[in-house]
């Protein structure tokens, strides 16, 4: 590879590329094997080249790729009904990414209010530290100054408060408020689970004020926490939920799920997508669901998550100089460090383990949900070595990468 590529340089890429994947492992073009504890940022939920997914995509690829949403897509109707049968939702809109799923959710919330005779309600309360995508509306919803910088006036209509602050939230509700959007576990800002009591408070305040509650489960959904959707472990249900990342197991797919009531204004022509829910994506989405809904699959994810978290806690005890905290749920775990996360991510890369940095000095561990006990042990061994390396560097007053 040449040093300069023709790709727009918006990603600070690691100088490493992969030729193929096998389960939880990626094989670099040099032939070296890496244990994938990032899963393409929680996307490869079933690892790489899962036979059931490969077969579904190959079979569909030989039959039909695309027809547009001018016609019925039976596989899409099937996936939508399965998502609804396993959640609070009655209807599904398919998109191609998380940001698009959130755009659909935000539009739906405004439309709900306007169709209910309250067009003056169009603002959405979001949370500090949130991440909802990179479109103009979703960077405004996320509110991160880093993501908004240089892109002109932010799309209007978002009010930000701190997660967990009930007084601030109550004060933020005004005559123009339409909805509240929250990640049940904030991902990009550092794997921060939201207390179920706060989600319950949001549910109550939405019910009392006729606001819609939107859960962004783009990262936390699709089995990641050991529940099909993270909120199912909290006893609180939203009116609208967005999904992407794991839902296509690596095939680009997003979804916006809603109750009939919340979706009431979304009639023919109100929203659309050329590619959304196309036959290829629907075939793979159904194949992912086949596996997630297998008897015992999610319970196994939860169990492996507990084992991994327990082992991480033991590591944290032995590496107090680097590790501040272990947090998260299921196989969506974060190692909060006393050093920038790039230090540990880099040291793990030298151990041939792939992880993903997040905010708040957190290194995210997001292995495929199909990770084996043996591979969890390998990762723990690599983490032990990587933490020792970072610790030694820290004691010598330098960066582990030097
Ligand atoms: C990744 C992510 C998004 C954006 O998804 P894209 O597919 O990159 O548009 C939105 N919300 C959350 C919680 C995410 O983790």
Account of the protein in words:
- The chain is an alpha/beta fold and 402 residues long.
- The chain has 2 domains: 139 residues, Aspartate Aminotransferase, domain 1 (Alpha-Beta Complex), CATH 3.90.1150.10; 229 residues, Aspartate Aminotransferase, domain 2.
- It has 12 helices and 17 strands.
- The strands form 4 sheets. It has a 7-stranded mixed sheet with strand order 4-12-11-10-7-5-6, sandwiched between helices.
- A hairpin with a 5-residue loop joins strand 8 and strand 9.
- Helix 3 packs parallel to helix 9, helix 10 runs parallel beside helix 12 and helix 11 crosses helix 12.
- It starts with 17 loop residues before the first strand and ends in a 7-residue tail after the last helix.
- The mean pLDDT is 97.
- Bound molecules: pyridoxal-5'-phosphate.
Structure described in brief:
The chain is α/β, with parallel strands linked by helices. Helices cover 37% and strands 18% of the residues. Bound molecules: pyridoxal-5'-phosphate (PLP).
Set out the fold topology.
Layout (H helix, E strand, L loop, with lengths): L17 E5 L2 E4 L4 E4 L2 H4 L8 H13 L10 H12 L5 E5 L2 H18 L7 E5 L8 H7 L2 H4 L9 E4 L4 H7 L4 E6 L2 E2 L5 E2 L2 H14 L2 E5 L23 E4 L10 E5 L20 H14 L4 H22 L4 E7 L2 E6 L3 H10 L2 E2 L1 E3 L3 E4 L7 H23 L7
Parallel strand pairs: 3-15, 5-6, 5-7, 7-10, 10-11
Antiparallel strand pairs: 1-2, 2-3, 4-12, 8-9, 11-12, 13-14, 14-17, 16-17
This protein binds pyridoxal-5'-phosphate.
The site of pyridoxal-5'-phosphate has 15 residues, from helix 4.
Subcellular location: Cytoplasm
Cofactor: pyridoxal 5'-phosphate
Family: Belongs to the class-III pyridoxal-phosphate-dependent aminotransferase family. ArgD subfamily.
